[in-house]
Write a structure and sequence with these properties.
Elements: E1 3-9, E2 13-20, E3 26-33, E4 39-40, H1 43-55, E5 62-69, E6 75-77, E7 87-88, H2 96-106, H3 111-122, H4 131-141, H5 143-148, E8 151-153, H6 155-163, E9 182-184, H7 185-188, E10 194-195, E11 210-211, H8 213-220, E12 229-231, E13 238-239, E14 254-255, E15 259-260, H9 261-269, E16 275-280, E17 284-290, E18 302-305, E19 311-317, H10 321-331, H11 335-344, E20 353-355, E21 372-374, H12 383-407, E22 414-418, H13 425-435, E23 439-442, H14 447-464, E24 477-481, H15 488-496
Helix pairs in contact: 2-3, 2-4, 4-8, 9-14, 10-12, 11-12, 11-13, 12-13
């Protein structure tokens, strides 16, 4: 049975799963941590990948590998393949003023016009997370570094490039061939200079996507940098260097195009149009697969591509599981005790409401905002009320994202709650009350890495049968919870969320 590997190079760690290509059965896995921070040298990703590969028993026997990664980060390379400066990650908000400048510039000075033009051009209104805003910041704040930039990649692009054996001449066996960089539509669609629905170059109606050098030039002042080739969903980007993976496999290990993390999770979950996933990780994400993206000039919804040829509509908050971490710190409790406390207080926490903009916010776009606690009285100054307010605030922000998807006409047929925080009994209970919908909770898993592994299996199958589709690996819903709508939480939150 051929084996495939899926890699999740996330903000916090690198995780690798090795699976049977035909059945999806897990064979082994490994992980390693990344340093904290909003900027990081990519060498840390390579170190963590090699550590995770060793922990997974090595990758010599895998026939294909693919990388899912955190979206939007800026990896700037010079002509020698060296990193120009530490990569700015998606959660680095220093480019927020640059985002506003670019919106107004495309709108000829009018923000509303500019926002709609960006949404129509790329699917997203610019926020500090997107790569293009970080390039504008680099141009203005570090012009000497900007002048050295010869190529711009995303985190998963860079790691795939290194897996193929490329990099600085003194570090990588194949040297710094920048033209060997590759990516996929899902991650490219989160840069701010790629249109995932641009028609093909032959004038046909099929949507292939393409870079927008005019937007890159607007932001960075030039468009002569190398950008990764954008591959089709099952198209290989090359082969892994035998020192990294596939040395025991005839012909070596194919490398899939990879995915952005949200598209990887959607592929790992087998999401189809009508499915909604609400992910509670470092960020909070409400995602929906749809046949075509929308162009939401309000900025509430980002219209990206998924990893299969569909669109992936996202509402993203900066503050999700870390809100629970903050609550644990304030109350000096573990997750189990936090959950117990929260379930002791009544729905609505007797009027105590947290607006959880603890690290600024992306949706709504308030990068300089802070969290606020409303309704503090003697009666609500208890550990139980505070625990419940933190859980409710986190989920109310995501419920606003679900409403924004509905407003754009995105069908909502099935809701899945995923991510580490989804295992909390308090989160599960409050989710049925805040969302007012039945909630399915899949078995715990590494959904991004699983999606990357599924893509690798697809690439492997397509190598011998070009018309092959993604393998039908099953995802089991472990728990289904009935809807228990409690409108008081959304009503209280709506009354104070803009008082920041």
């Amino acid at each position: 049975m051929p084996l495939v590997a899926g890699v999740d190079t996330s903000t916090q760690s690198c995780k690798i799963v090795v699976r049977d290509a035909e059945t999806g059965a897990l064979v082994r896995s490994g992980s390693a941590q990344h340093p904290d921070g909003t900027e990081i040298h990519p060498d840390h990703w390579w170190t963590a990948f090699t550590e995770a590969a060793r922990a997974a028993g090595g990758l010599d026997d895998v026939a294909a590998i693919a990388v899912g990664g955190q979206q939007h980060g800026m990896v700037a390379l010079d002509a020698e393949g060296r990193v120009v400066r530490d990569a700015l990650l998606w959660n680095d908000t220093r480019s927020a003023p640059a985002a506003e400048d670019l919106i107004r510039e495309l709108g000829d000075g009018d923000r509303e016009t500019g926002a709609q033009r960006w949404a129509e051009a790329t699917g997203s209104v610019l926020v500090a997370s997107l790569t293009i805003t970080k390039l504008r910041w680099l141009r203005d704040a570090e012009p000497d570094n900007a002048a050295r930039v010869a190529a711009v990649a995303l985190p998963h692009d860079w790691l795939s490039w290194r897996i193929a054996g490329y990099g600085p001449a003194d570090e990588a066996p194949l040297g710094p061939d920048l033209t060997a960089l590759f990516t996929d539509r899902s991650d490219a669609s989160g840069t701010g200079y790629y249109d995932a629905e641009a028609p093909d170059s032959d004038g046909g109606t099929e949507q292939h996507g393409g870079y927008r050098p005019d937007l890159l030039r607007l932001a960075f002042g030039r468009d002569d940098v190398v950008l990764p080739r954008v591959l089709a969903p099952s198209e290989p980007g090359g082969r892994a260097h035998p020192s990294v993976a596939g040395s025991d496999v005839d012909g070596g290990a194919l490398i899939g195009p990879g995915t952005g993390d949200n598209a990887g999770a959607a592929l790992g979950l087998g999401m189809q149009p009508g499915d909604i996933a609400i992910s509670l990780g470092t960020s909070g994400v409400v995602s929906a697969v749809a046949p075509r993206r929308t162009a939401d000039g309000s900025g509430a919804i980002n219209g990206f591509a998924d990893a299969t040829g569909n669109a992936l509509m996202l509402a993203v908050t900066l503050n999700a599981a870390r809100v629970l971490d903050a609550a644990r710190s304030v109350l000096d409790v573990d997750y189990d005790e936090l959950s117990r406390l929260a379930l002791t207080a009544p729905p609505g926490s007797d009027g105590l409401v947290l607006v959880p903009y603890l690290e600024g916010e992306r949706t709504p776009n308030r990068p300089e905002a802070t969290g606020t606690l409303h309704g503090v009285r003697i009666a609500t100054s208890t550990r139980e009320h505070l625990a419940r307010a933190y859980v409710e605030g986190m989920l109310c922000g995501l419920a606003d994202g679900l409403d924004a998807l509905r407003a754009q006409g995105v069908p909502v047929e099935q809701v899945m709650l995923i991510g580490g925080a989804a295992q909390s009994p308090a989160v599960q209970t409050v989710a049925t009350q805040v969302f007012g919908l039945p909630i399915g909770i899949p078995e715990p898993g590494e959904y991004v890495a699983d999606g990357a592994a599924r893509q690798a299996a697809w690439v492997l199958a397509a190598a011998s049968a070009p018309s092959a589709t993604a393998p039908s690996w099953s995802t089991r819903v472990a728990t289904t919870l009935d809807a228990d709508p409690r409108p008081v939480m959304r009503e209280q939150y709506a009354a104070v969320r803009d008082l920041v």
